[in-house]
Amino acid sequence: MTKKLELTVQIADDIERMLMNGTPLTTICQNKDAPSLSKVYDWIRSDKEFADKILTARKIAAQTYLDKMIIELENADAKNIAVTREKLIHYRWLSSKLIAIYGDKQQVEVDQKIDITWHNPDEDKTFENEIKNVSELGS
Fold first, then answer.
1. 9-22: pLDDT as tens digits
2. For a disulfide at 62, which of 20, 37, 98, 103, Cβ 3.0-4.6 Å?
3. What single-letter DSSP state applies at residue 30?
4. Which residue has the higher pLDDT, 83 or 127?
5. Which of 28-37, 49-58, 83-92, 112-121 is predicted least confidently?
6. DSSP H/E element including 138
7. Quick check: 50 and 12 in contact, CB under 8 A?
C-alpha cells in the first residue's frame, strides 16, 4: 500500500516559489522530489486557498517572463532573431492573459441607467385629454 501524499506548507511554498521564478509547473513536477502534475492539479481543484496561491504565483511569474524578454532581446543576434521573436511573442501573450494591465483590450464597464423624458407641466397631454381636445375642436 502506498502512502498518500498530502499537501504541506513546505510543498506549497516550494511550488509557489518556483512558479514565481518562471519555472513551468510541468517542469517543477518532473523533479524527483516533487509531487506529480496530476497530484498538484488535484490539490488545485480541491483546495481553494492553494489554487489562489498558484494563480497569484503565475501572475508574479508573468513579471519574471517580461524581465526574461528584455534579456532575450538584448542577447539576440542575426542568427537567432526568429527564435527570439517567437519567444517574445509567447511571453507577451502569456503576460497579457495573466496580468490585465498588459492585455490588448481595455474595457470600461458602466453600470448606469439614464432615462430621458420630456414633460411640460403647463400642458397636460394625456391620451384622454388629447381625445377631449380633438372632440371639442370638431364641435
1. 999 999 999 999 98
2. 98
3. T
4. 83
5. 112-121
6. helix 127-138
7. yes
Please give the Cα distance from 107 to 53 (Å, whole number).
26
* 8 Å CB contact between 62 and 94: yes
| Residue closest to 15 by CA, chosen among 45, 50, 42 | 50
C-alpha cell at 42: 488535484
Confidence band for 48, pLDDT divided at 50, 70 and 90: very high
Better-scored residue on pLDDT, 4 or 103: 4
- What is the residue type of 121? P
Grid cell at residue 139: 364641435
Query: To 5 degrees, how large is the angle CA 3–CA 56–CA 32?
Result: 35
Between CA 137 and CA 139 the distance in angstroms is 6
Say which DSSP state 100 is in.
G
Q: Angle 61-53-64 (CA atoms, 0-180°, nearest 5)?
A: 5
Whose grid coordinates read 492573459?
97
